[in-house]
Known about the structure:
Blueprint: H1 4-9, H2 31-49, H3 54-61, H4 69-77, H5 82-92, H6 102-114, H7 118-129, H8 141-151, H9 154-166, H10 173-185, H11 189-201, H12 208-220, H13 224-233, H14 243-255, H15 259-271, H16 281-289, H17 293-303, E1 312-315, E2 324-327, H18 333-339, H19 345-353, H20 360-369, H21 373-383, H22 393-405, H23 409-422, H24 428-440, H25 444-452, H26 454-458, H27 463-479, H28 483-495, H29 502-514, H30 518-530, H31 537-549, H32 553-565, H33 574-586, H34 590-599, H35 607-617, H36 623-642
Helix pairs in contact: 2-3, 2-4, 3-5, 4-6, 6-7, 6-8, 8-9, 8-10, 10-11, 10-12, 11-36, 12-13, 12-14, 13-14, 13-36, 14-15, 14-16, 16-17, 18-20, 20-21, 20-22, 22-23, 22-24, 24-25, 24-27, 25-27, 27-28, 27-29, 29-30, 29-31, 31-32, 31-33, 33-34
Amino acid sequence: xxxxxxxxxxxxxxxxxxxxxxxxxxxxxxxxxxxxxxxxxxxxxxxxxxxxxxxxxxxxxxxxxxxxxxxxxxxxxxxxxxxxxxxxxxxxxxxxxxxxxxxxxxxxxxxxxxxxxxxxxxxxxxxxxxxxxxxxxxxxxxxxxxxxxxxxxxxxxxxxxxxxxxxxxxxxxxxxxxxxxxxxxxxxxxxxxxxxxxxxxxxxxxxxxxxxxxxxxxxxxxxxxxxxxxxxxxxxxxxxxxxxxxxxxxxxxxxxxxxxxxxxxxxxxxxxxxxxxxxxxxxxxxxxxxxxxxxxxxxxxxxxxxxxxxxxxxxxxxxxxxxxxxxxxxxxxxxxxxxxxxxxxxxxxxxxxxxxxxxxxxxxxxxxxxxxxxxxxxxxxxxxxxxxxxxxxxxxxxxxxxxxxxxxxxxxxxxxxxxxxxxxxxxxxxxxxxxxxxxxxxxxxxxxxxxxxxxxxxxxxxxxxxxxxxxxxxxxxxxxxxxxxxxxxxxxxxxxxxxxxxxxxxxxxxxxxxxxxxxxxxxxxxxxxxxxxxxxxxxxxxxxxxxxxxxxxxxxxxxxxxxxxxxxxxxxxxxxxxxxxxxxxxxxxxxxxxxxxxxxxxxxxxxxxxxxxxxxxxxxxxxxxxxxxxxxxxxxxxxxxxx
Length: 643
């Protein structure tokens, strides 16, 4: 099915002129063999951790030559209870050849936090920081925040956050996300909003996890529509929507019996190329009970367990089958991919001997983790010939996007041609990602080719999704310095009835201004106004900065006057105003410089305005809208509570 005939006929990999590399099989007892020995030992320890005779079960297992920090770490993570964790750790003390590493100790801390063992967690932290383990580095603020948040130790969490804030170390984005999430989970909504405000003020750009926190918080407070509003804005902000966000929204709207919204979410999920998770299984069953069988059938089918994957088991009592412990075999795609870094005949032979059950999910994870790209492609071709496996749109789209990210245009083109000839439909989100990756390699020609084939690759594309695709293509062409093509595509977009959003116009102006193309900047600004798009303060700021840097301060001054004459009385930020005044002085326009100074008296160096330029570079112009939605929800709640 699909590409199997293609790969049996010949190996397309040979058509690509990759740099020649010869990966000799490693002599260190073969990494693939080591991986599977470790996997077998991890499975044995996982079963022993669930045995009623845990201590005695460990005796022979822990003397296995394959025991190392990797095995111990993965066994700890799978422990079912704090009792089994304690027994396992105590048993390790009797193994002279084993000593803890930083990795095993950090995993132990994470497990203790998961089981809310605050006292034991603090004792371990103190031991590490006091130098009890010489080869282990002191614990960072980030790790402490993660562990205390998981353990539910709010006082220690706040103390660590305060210490981090008052140190010279700038909190990272993930630190802000953790703090924001903890406040939201504890119902401290105003504090969570304040953290987001602090992030923006300090120029920290939110990521998809930040928006997940907002969506989850709004849902938990019954603000489903507001959560959906933020979620709907993410594609326009070039932020990837995540499976967790979909799961949260599907679960919330299913509970509210808003099945039409759930139907729309499932459709968007398919467009984005998302594979459903187990967490939405109950929601899908409720949808089917409500009569939405056709809309959910494919998702339910994808979530069915694969009968080919057999459980591992441990029978506690031969006379009582109810005491049998059964688990899915342990498999870590990232670790297996790392073991396959050197792809040679011996590695392939060991992989075939292992009789791995290849599923679409597993293959996608393998492709994502395999390095270098040559190995990923060889694996992709090899796995297509394995018994019981056929490539589908999920695995193909994953391979194509990775090839595009690494700039292998010829192979992407050939694979997409095969996709079209086989009638396979790729998810829209993956096709858009391909075009976006071509902006990195500055390959606008390839992006145009993919864009023109979008209906053959994805099927009919809804108008709102087509608008996103146009926007992505335009910025790719602009970055590729294909000015004429970008302007032609912009014309076609408008003529087809799709009016670009102001962020698209601003993005093009930003790219062409960076290239010093004054005619392109002026034409795009004119097209925006002709399309009925009202310039905002940021677009005008772009023009002022561009004109000043092009030694055309008088044109920048006219833009400033236009801002002043606008009904909304827009003002440039402090840095732009300073640049304008300096440029006017440089060109001997003293009267105009004095006018700007007079009209901007009392202007402060507002960090939120300054940071917006850096936010733009990562395509977050909608951030203010999102912040207003998020903050206003809890502002209203607070005022109602006050009443």
